[in-house]
Amino acid sequence: MTVYGDEKSGNCYKIKLTLHLLNIEYQWKAVDLMKGETTTPAFLAKSPQGKLPIIELTDGRVLAESNAIIGYLAGNSELVPKDEFDKALMYQWMFYEQYTHEPCIAVARFIQLYQNMPVERQSEYDSLHAKGTKILGLLDQQLSDNLFIIGSQFTLADIALYAYTHVAHEGGFDLTHYANINNWLERVTKQRGYVSMFG
User: Fold this and answer.
1) Alpha-carbon distance 43 to 57, whole Å?
2) How far apart are CA 135 and CA 132, in angstroms?
3) Which residues pair with 148 in a beta bridge?
4) Cβ–Cβ < 8 Å for 58, 42
5) Fold type of domain 84-189
6) For helices 10-21 and 66-74, what crossing angle results, to 10°?
7) Which CATH fold topology does 2-74 show?
8) How confident is the model over 10-62, as pLDDT tens digits?
């Protein structure tokens, strides 16, 4: 399969990390968001929303949305709980990542890392930091009694939340205050097949 992605993107990194953890072969095709490469006719033919990442299977089928992609890739692997309630908990935290965590932590990182802190987004950036403190606090609390997000099993929820949490400092968030998060980040790096964002 071919993965179309931006190496600096946490959403794209989720795909890369999942593929490596599952030892699945793939080709990576770099797409530069800031150069408008997601708006070309050729890319829009594959991804009408003009969003990254997408994967293209060998038969030509295309799948978008990072958490849907990793769900497809993991299938019946050890990254998805067998117990139905635990599986639902995994999805709960994956939805939390996309609808609460990512729109705050990732957007602040985008403003700082990709856009180099434009003046017109400063107030938005400050607001995101106020929200981010609560978001990271909740995540730290969840990890106070758990090795991983939903308990003792490493799942897709960990991959989804790790992607932007481990680079939150690039959005100005100070993770030194969150001991549980830091311990969890270290445990993720110990998973067999782990690869770094730029590895």
Assistant:
1) 15
2) 5
3) 151
4) no
5) Glutathione S-transferase Yfyf (Class Pi); Chain A, domain 2 (1.20.1050)
6) 0
7) Glutaredoxin (3.40.30)
8) 999 999 999 999 999 999 999 998 899 999 999 999 999 999 999 999 999 99
